[in-house]
């Protein structure tokens, strides 16, 4: 006897394409759904790594140095909300990989400045390229209408993140 239920793939597709319900637009419900979706997307993007296979913390430190220029390990720790000993380990690991360089502080001989090397910049670019390629492939599988919704949503998410 045949089941009158649609195949699982059809059910999943119907759920994915169903318009949002009134209840799913309530702030509490929407916040939970967005948190889960954004977390999953973030996890997928983080899994796309460059050749050095850096940890998230190492990648973040390289990004900060690339954006803001040389910093002391203490300033990096403050910026990344890490404990100084953890930052020291992160910087030392990046230094061993040749992705950062430590140099003497120009005005305070007690301090060290950390800067990103050309190899570090290349690692950042490769990681970003892989992440962009992964996301571009995923976006390419969507309809033009879905991409338009995401374009609008991207602006809204940017506003949410700005506080």
TrEMBL record:
This is MarR family protein. Residues 27-162 form the HTH marR-type domain. PROSITE patterns: HTH_MARR_2 (PS50995). One of its GO terms (molecular function) is DNA-binding transcription factor activity. It holds the Pfam family MarR. InterPro entries: HTH-type_Bedaq_tolerance, HTH_MarR-typ, WH-like_DNA-bd_sf, WH_DNA-bd_sf. Gene3D superfamilies: Winged helix-like DNA-binding domain superfamily/Winged helix DNA-binding domain. Residues 1-25 are annotated as: Disordered.
């Amino acid at each position: 006897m045949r089941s009158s239920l649609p195949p699982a793939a059809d059910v999943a597709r119907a759920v994915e394409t169903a318009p949002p319900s009134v209840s799913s637009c309530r702030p509490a419900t929407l916040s939970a759904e967005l948190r889960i979706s954004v977390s999953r997307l973030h996890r997928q993007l983080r899994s796309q790594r460059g050749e050095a296979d850096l940890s998230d913390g190492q990648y973040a430190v390289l990004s900060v140095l690339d954006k803001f220029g040389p910093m002391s390990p203490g300033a990096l720790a403050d910026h990344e909300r890490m404990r100084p000993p953890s930052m020291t380990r992160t910087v030392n690991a990046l230094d061993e990989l040749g992705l950062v360089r430590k140099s003497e502080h120009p005005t305070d001989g007690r301090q060290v400045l950390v800067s990103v090397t050309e190899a570090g910049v290349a690692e950042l670019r490769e990681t970003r390229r892989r992440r962009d390629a992964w996301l571009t492939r995923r976006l390419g599988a969507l309809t033009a209408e879905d991409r338009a919704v995401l374009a609008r949503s991207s602006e809204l998410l940017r506003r949410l993140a700005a506080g």
